[in-house]
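If you are new to this repository, start here. Below is one unmodified record pulled from the training split, so you can see the exact layout before writing a loader.
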Amino acid sequence: MATSTDLLSFVEASPSPFHCAVEAARRLEEKGFTPHDEAAAPAPVAPGELGYTMRAGTLIAWKIGSQSPASAGFRLLAAHTDSPNLRIKPNGEYRKEGYVQWGVEVYGGVLTPTWMDRDLGVCGRIAVRTDAGIEMRLVRIDQAIARVANLAIHLNRTVNTEGLKLNKQRHLPPIICLDSGLDAPNALNQLLAKNAGCDPDSIMDYDLSLFDLQAPALGGLHKEFIFAPRMDNQASCYTALEALIAHDQDHPATAVAVLFDHEECGSTSDRGASSGFLKNVLTRIERDHQERDTGGMERATANSFLVSADMAHAVHPNY
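And here is the target side for that same chain:
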């Protein structure tokens, strides 16, 4: 029960991939893991070292083994921080029939009807121009700001017999407010600026999602079910973190938890699974390990294995 409750806390703290990576980092630091800067100069890697590095919504963490990776290899457990959702389009705000709405793009394999008639907040990160340069800030707005409204059954009489048929571009833009003119020219930027403590004109860009405000919960008569969003794949992220924290610090092999962003939309981004991020991290560990052995990354790779952990479906009693 304690593990299930802790999982719910992890998911609640992680409405976006960026928040998920930050929450993972917070939990790791509580257990003695040290953050590492990708751009820092190389330093010796000591057996038993606990560390992690982040790139936006991706986090890679490690426990350095007692032997060199060339001889003992890596033990990797990989998952992904992102989940199917509705992303707000760039310059997506528009006015129609007296309402203010946001254009949204379906991200990943979204079951679109489940987003209808829910209280939706806004989360993600924004790029803010400051005197010191561009600063990335996380935003999370836990208010029922947006709603993707269903059409009344009087105007859609066949919905219960023929199913709900949604056009992703026409039917999914959420309603934000009435077009009173008070929020002109950009209600979204004003909202973000208020949340991030900056001037609306200083916001250069954003990567934002809608998220369901209903909190995760244990359900069922005996609390045997987990009712929560983003199980695909933050459940595996949580498992990977817990496994790494519990891993034997004196093990010969180096243990690595890899939490990638962008699984849902393809992994060829700068922080996705096909990027050079993981390879760079493993290469530095192998190269700078104090017990380095001959053979390099080629030998380390041959002595390693990786588990790619993701969610799958088992049984649905109604189907």
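Two things worth knowing about this chain: The CA atoms of residues 159 and 165 lie 8 Å apart. The radius of gyration is 22 Å.
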